[in-house]
Amino acid sequence: MSSNAAIAPFDPAVDAPKPHHPVYDYDSGPPVNRGKFAIWLFLATEIMFFTGLIGAYIVLRMGADTWPDPENRLAVLITAINTFILICSSATMVKAVEQAMLGHNSELVKWLAATVVIGAVFVGVQVYEYAELIKAGNLPNVDIFWSTFYAMTGFHGIHVTAGVIWNLCILIAAMRRKIPQEKYMKVELAGLYWHFVDLVWVLLFTIVYLM
Amino acid sequence: MSHDKGIGYSIWNIFVALFVLTGVEVFWGYAFHHNTGFMFHMPVVFFWGGLLLMALVKGLLIFMYFMHMRFERWIVWGLILPTPLLVLIVLAANMPDTSFNDQRDHPIGYLIDETGEVVNALDPQHPAKGRGTPHGAAPAEGH
Lengths: 211, 143
Prior knowledge:
The structure holds 2 protein chains of 2 kinds. Chain A is mostly helical. Chain A is built from 7 helices and no strands.
């Protein structure tokens, strides 16, 4: 066996690892903020997710001999008010993004807090609606109307709840002054998701509650 | 979009438009279901078309303004534009199931109960239209 003296000392000119990735003097990424690129890709998959649910609903409804009038089974007026509540939360979210862009932290906190509270009210009204329906025996396994109703509104409700939690995290960060003007994109990304769930609800409300 | 000048449009105009359209939608639905006034003899296609049109306009307002798409660069449009095409393909792929449902042995929207009968999934205690009588009951008069 050779002794330790036979091992050549480390020579950077010979032993240093070769760079595996070339370094360019330009940005080789997409010409848009990476976060925005990612959130739009994510939202595209979310659109397809809800398209699957709505597509199944269309097939089931059009294939049925008859379909109950939603007004006889659901609280349309309360849900219309709830729709308005969600639209209000989208408006407050736009104001929050605007204030983040302008670097007005106190205003950002105010509008984000309003968005979180209004979003939570929407979820609360939906939970109340579910509780009343279940109390009346309208479980998802009763018939195909309730199956599709709970599937579509339930998955949307989960998305809204996730949005409220996301907005709450951003709010806490803003309260700790962790979102300066140059990091406004954190608020904008949460806003894009929040507006998306608003947009989906606008369509679901029409399809499930009014048609 | 212009980051140093805020969001670049009046949010309240969009907000009012969404609010008004939601109100009109609810009225539209109420008037149809209660046979109110001018909608007394309105065909259901007209009713559904109106509702869908208003929902699409609301969705577009949210998409273009609240989600800033009106101010975005081509790359973001390029990310999202294939999606409506895929949505149309998914919905079109469902059309045979919808259109030929009444010709299927086991139609969508029906259940096979424990006795093997095809029953209406909306009302399992009653027979599916034109598909015999569940539970061995005699056909209803005029059915």
